[in-house]
Each structure stands twice: as structure tokens, then as C-alpha cells.
Description:
Elements: H1 4-33, H2 40-47, H3 54-73, H4 82-91, E1 114-124, E2 130-134, E3 139-142, E4 157-162, E5 168-172, E6 178-183
Antiparallel strand pairs: 1-2, 1-4, 2-3, 3-6, 4-5, 5-6
Amino acid sequence: xxxxQQSDQTLRRLxxxxxxxxxxxxxxxxxxxxxxxxPQLFNDLVECRLIADSAARLACYDQKVAQLxxxxxxxxxxxxxxxxxxxxxxxxxxxxLPRIKLFSGNDDDQQITEITQTVASAxxxxxxxxxxxxxxxxxxxxxxxxxxxxxxxxxxxxxxKRAAIGSFLAKVDGGRxxxxxxxxx
Length: 185
């Protein structure tokens, strides 16, 4: 079980990662929405293939790749594969972030619509509502008064799905669905 301090640190890291991803990817994504060009470093590399002479083309590639490598090492450029982007998206699932096509580019079909996690801790609040901390440090609270058929406990599996109008539904161990909201503590 995660301590409160570990949970807070994990949540802070996820929020910082989401903010970092927003800072890095938002300008290019917004630029694409306005029809602006890709980053110049990338365009320069792509243009190397237009060089007819093999030796000159190779020299161009070597130079541009070195510039990209330097930009990445100096944190001026972030390279992430799809799995890393999806992990970041799962980490911010349920948080209210600006609506930009940050994670899935122009393809809304790949937006994460549900996650399955493990409950790290659970406690019942007043009026039968539940307060849950998941194994990734995310904190969620029940927003309705639905009586759960299976009470959440450490090790329980929880499925959280996007629902209507920005809300979320959860099921603990396949039980009855209830409304839930992610909170930042």
C-alpha cells in the first residue's frame, strides 16, 4: 500500500508530466490546427532526401540528425513513442485538461475511454460515498449515492469509463456502476 506521501509524490509527478507534455506538444499541435508548418529541425531533415548526390545527402542527414540529437539532449525536443504517449494519457485520465489533440493527434478514435486499475486504498466517507486511491496514485471520489454490490478494498479491480458530459462511471470487481470523479489532493 502506498503511503500518503508516496501517493502525493506520484500524483505531482503525473501532473508535472502532463504539464510538461502540454508545454512541449501544445504549440506544434495548435500550429497544425492553424495550418502552420512542422518544426524547422524536422523539415530540414526531411528535405535532405531531395539531394541527388549520395555523399551530399548522407552528409546532410548526418548534420541534421546531429542537430536533432543535440536538441533532444538539451530538452528542446521530446521524442516519445505511442506507448509512452498512451501511458501519459492514462496518467491524466479523469483530469480536466484543455481540449487539444495533444495525445492522439487528429484521431479522436484512439482517445482512451476507459482504464482498469487496482485499488491501493479505499475508505467510506459519509452518506455511503467512497474515497479511492489507485495503484498509480490517482485519487477518485464517488459522486452519487449508489450502494455498491462489492465494496472496494486494497487489491480490488476497478474499471473507470468516460460517461456523458465529462462524467465517469466506475465498477469495482465487476459490480454495480457508480459515478466517480478524479480529484487532485
